Amino acid sequence: MMTPEIRSDLIKHSDEYVHALMTDKEASKYMLKLYNFLAEMQPGQRMNLRADGEKLRWMLVTVGEFMRSEGHWRCYDLNADYTKIRRTEFFPRPRKKRLG
Question: How far apart are CA 67 and CA 11, in angstroms?
Answer without folding.
Answer: 9
